[in-house]
Amino acid sequence: MLRRFGMGLLLVLLVAPASSTGRVHRHLEVLLSGEDAIYTELLESFRSWLGDLDATEMTLSISLADEVAESGGGGNPDLLIAVGSRAAQVAAQNAGTRPVLAVLAPRSALEPLRGRTGARFSAIYLDQPPGRLMALGRAALPRARRAGMLAGPDLQPGPEAFRRMAEVQGFSLNIQAFAAGDNPTSRIRRILDESEVVLAPYDPLVFGTATAKWLLYMAYQRGLPVIGFSRSYVRAGALAAVYSTPEQIGRQTAEVVRKWLREDARALPAAVYPAYYNVEVNDSVARTLGIDAPDPQVLAGQVARLSGGVR
I need a labelling partner for 108 at 20 to 30 A (CA). Which of 12, 100, 240, 272 fits? Predict the structure, then answer.
């Protein structure tokens, strides 16, 4: 079977030989949501961290999710690795009883897909666990006690989980529910009136609209720091953020696949948040707010300690 993927890359799926380790040779198929850099960067990291396994214990094929959807299904792999939300949707529709490992998609996009496949649907979420976001807020602003947050109806893992994690870090968390059609400025104003710091986890409704820009703008006008979920959010005006890169999630994906192969393709592990992450700080915002800009590496160490290495 010949399959052409982007930029002239030609991939050939061969009949798999027996593994030199004595294990059954496995066929893995990677479904990419597109040819954007975020997907290809994860793919390159994944293949790099697999190392010699690529040749000795498995055969790897790569497909675009939309091509598989149009053709009505791909080959017959032992494991489907879906990269991005679109790929996860296609994998869930075409997996049958085959296991699926979905990566580089937020938990809110993956939770509805559970149960649509007859086999284990596991994941490495793109977004960060609540405890890690709260730990960054505590590390960056050790004197803050009152935090605020908007929460749309599809926030994962839900407002109560964020409240529990906020309490662990010594925050009193004011959560304002936000629904489609609500006036964002009035909700944001209620948060800012009662908070010393604004926490901004990934939320498909809140941060898929202009609401995110309003939140950053109004917090900046009030002189309140925002702790966010992505590098782009820091560059747009948040004080700091914790996030995982495609390369880091690619590494973790390879680790899961290595373990799956070592255990002779037994059940995939439960879905997890990223194990590897970065912290970024906006020095300009820190100066404007009169905050001593903490070193990102120091903050990352504090986040690991305060969050207990939560995954």
Answer: 240
pTM of the model: 0.89
pLDDT at 234 over 70: yes
In tens, the pLDDT along 32-73 reads 999 999 999 999 999 999 987 756 778 999 999 999 988 876
* Cα 288 to the center of its chain, rounded Å: 30
Looking up tokens 């939770």 gives 111
- The Cα 114–Cα 155 span in angstroms is 16
* Confidence at 94, pLDDT banded by 50, 70, 90: confident
Query: Parallel, antiparallel, or unpaired for β 240-243 and 172-177?
Result: unpaired
**What residue ranges of the chain are covered by domains with CATH 3.40.50.2300?**
2-124+247-262, 130-243+277-307
The pLDDT score that the predictor gives to residue 71 is 83
Alpha helices in the chain (DSSP H): 37-50, 53-56, 65-71, 85-94, 107-110, 130-140, 159-168, 184-193, 211-222, 231-236, 246-262, 283-288, 296-307
Q: Does a cis peptide bond (omega within 30 degrees of 0) precede residue 274? A: no
Please determine, looking at this structure, whether the domain spanning 130-243+277-307 carries the CATH number 3.40.50.2300. yes
Identify which of 196, 174, 178 has the alpha carbon closest to the alpha carbon of residue 187: 178
* 8 A C-beta contact, residue 113 and residue 88: yes
The per-residue pLDDT for 163 is: 96
